[in-house]
Specification:
With 285 residues, the chain is an alpha/beta fold. The protein contains 10 helices and 9 strands. A 6-stranded parallel β-sheet has the order 1-4-3-2-5-6, sandwiched between helices. Strands 7-8-9 form a 3-stranded antiparallel β-sheet. It is globular. The protein starts with a strand and ends with a strand. The relative contact order is 0.12. Bound molecules: pantoate (PAF). Pantoate (PAF) binds next to strand 2 and helix 6.
């Protein structure tokens, strides 16, 4: 596996790879876990060469979010990726990604509003800007993202469509299903912050979401099902619920009734100081 930190060698290397087949890109910020490795394994099935980027993107961190404390483990991550058969690790420096004078910003309205966008102003602008740059740098045939960050995936799909990005084309931006623990809790690096008691309580999140979905699908009013979900989370040990909403799966418009197009139930809730997010599909009428 080749590791590159600056743009010119990266462009030469991806041009070389493209001569012998399709390229899949898996964008990450490092500190890799099983969820990322699942994306890499899916990427290997869909292309001849896998490029993984590791870049802790300063643009997507708010003033109150500690960019400096974000884990950086390039050596460990690099060994994990080499073992998965990754062809190229693109680990740009901040200067390579945002050279002196960098002044552009991609802002995707609508899908970025509300949900996690409400508590992290500017976050999705930072995500869209760096992902657009990564697409232009690597020109992948396909790019893979985890469905766990559903709003991020919706923002990237909207941007790809709006800006006529052809590599990858919008249909080649693939969401990969959330990897879950045996009890159903979505895998996340944040689960490590939970005490044993909190970890046991955290299972209420997927369980209560499934119950709310069953209620909506059986015709219960959406508001009542979501109120039941809120109560179940608070009774189950969560300290607060940031949001629990039914939204159109693609445009992310808020839905008060079960609709006829694909929908998603999206939830963010806190146990102590740890904020967990999850989302699940809701069957259309
Ligand atoms: O999901 C992430 O790890 C990041 O938001 C991404 C997509 C790599 C952009 O920095």
């Amino acid at each position: 596996m080749q590791t590159l930190h600056s743009l010119d060698p990266l462009r030469r290397a991806v041009a070389g790879l493209r001569e012998s087949g399709k390229i899949a890109l898996v964008p990450t910020m490092g500190a890799l876990h099983e969820g990322h490795l699942t994306l890499v394994r899916e990427a290997r099935k869909r292309a001849d060469h896998v490029v993984v980027s590791i870049f802790v993107n300063p643009l997507q961190f708010g003033a109150n979010e500690d960019l400096d404390k974000y884990p950086r483990q390039l050596e460990r991550d690099s060994a994990l990726l080499a073992a998965e058969g990754v062809a190229l690790l693109w680990a740009p420096t901040v200067e390579a990604m945002y050279p002196q004078g960098f002044a552009s910003n991609i802002s995707v309205s609508g899908v970025s509003d509300g949900l996690c966008g409400a508590s992290r102003p500017g976050h999705f602008d930072g995500v869209a800007t760096v992902v657009c740059k990564l697409f232009n740098q690597v020109l992948p045939d396909v790019a893979l993202f985890g469905e766990k960050d559903w709003q991020q995936l919706a923002v990237i799909r909207r941007m790809t469509r709006d800006l006529d990005l052809t590599r990858p084309h919008v249909d080649a931006v693939l969401g990969v299903a959330t990897v879950r623990e045996e009890d159903g809790l979505a895998k996340s690096s944040r689960n490590a912050y939970l005490s044993q008691e909190q970890r046991a309580q955290a299972v209420t999140l997927p369980t209560a979401m499934k119950a709310a979905i069953a209620a909506i699908e059986s015709g219960e009013p959406v508001a009542a099902a979501l109120a039941g979900l809120d109560s179940a989370l608070l009774d189950g040990g969560f300290s607060s619920v940031d949001y629990a909403e039914l939204r159109d799966a693609d445009a992310l418009t808020l839905l008060e009734k079960r609709g006829e197009a694909p929908m998603r139930l999206l939830v963010a809730a806190r146990i102590g100081t740890t904020r967990l997010i999850d989302n699940m599909p809701v069957a259309p009428k």
